[in-house]
Amino acid sequence: MSSPPEAVTIEEHLFADDGHVPNNLSLPLIVYRGALQAGPRCAVECERLFAENGWGAAWRNGIYVHHHYHSTAHEVLGIAAGSVRVLLGGETGKTVELRAGDVVVIPAGVAHKNEGASPDLVVVGAYPDGKSPDMCGPAAQHRQRALRNIPEVPLPSLDPVFGKLGPLLKRWAAGCRG
After folding, report:
1. Under 8 Å CB-to-CB from 133, ≥6 apart: which residues?
2. Strands 112-117 and 75-81, how do they pair?
3. What is the pLDDT of residue 141?
4. Residues in the chain with pLDDT < 50?
5. Mind listing the domains of the chain with CATH numbers?
6. Alpha-carbon span 140 to 147, nearest angstrom
């Protein structure tokens, strides 16, 4: 996989603080539909693509079945195999179906939760500059620290899928000015 397929479609979702999780009203969550070429080597190629674009500390697994978010790092998830329904933005958020080939970039503070997955689900996750994320939930003890941390998380220097010319950089830079 030298570059993403040409027929990638992009979705944006903004989530406001719901009183339980802070979410991120400045930076939209971005879904790249069909960004990866699905197949037996998709996970390996996804890890390589993310690493080439400065998103390291890659892991392979699924998505937790409880609401969680990261206040110290943005996260990218590449669906290498299978499918998953993810509730984004907390209990009052939006459920999105992700399939093999899709990539989702989750800004710091945005909650995500697996609401059901195919048995063959493989997710590749990574973080800009290989940062190590914290793990936060809707519990009150995480909230104040998260509200301090989230605005301090730097914007990535590269889009995890498209690199220097990626739409993420423009959309997130616009969000920070707004």
Report:
1. 70, 72, 73, 75, 127
2. unpaired
3. 84
4. 1-2, 178
5. 9-131+148-167 (2.60.120.10)
6. 11
Q: What is the pLDDT of residue 5?
A: 61
CB of 1 closer than 8 Å to CB of 47: no
Bridge-partner residues for 128, per DSSP? 55
Tens digits of per-residue pLDDT, 105-129? 999 999 999 999 999 999 999 999 9
What single DSSP character describes residue 138? S
- DSSP assignment of 34-46, as one string? T-S--STTHHHHH
Provide the token pair at 75: 């996260």
Residue 128 has phi, psi (to 5 degrees) of -60, 140
Tell me what pLDDT residue 1 has.
43
pLDDT for res 147: 95
Helix ranges restricted to H, 73-150:
140-149
Closest to 133 in 3D by CA, of 157, 149, 112, 144: 149
Report H helices in the chain. Answer: 42-52, 140-149, 167-177
pTM exceeding the 0.90 threshold for the entire prediction: yes
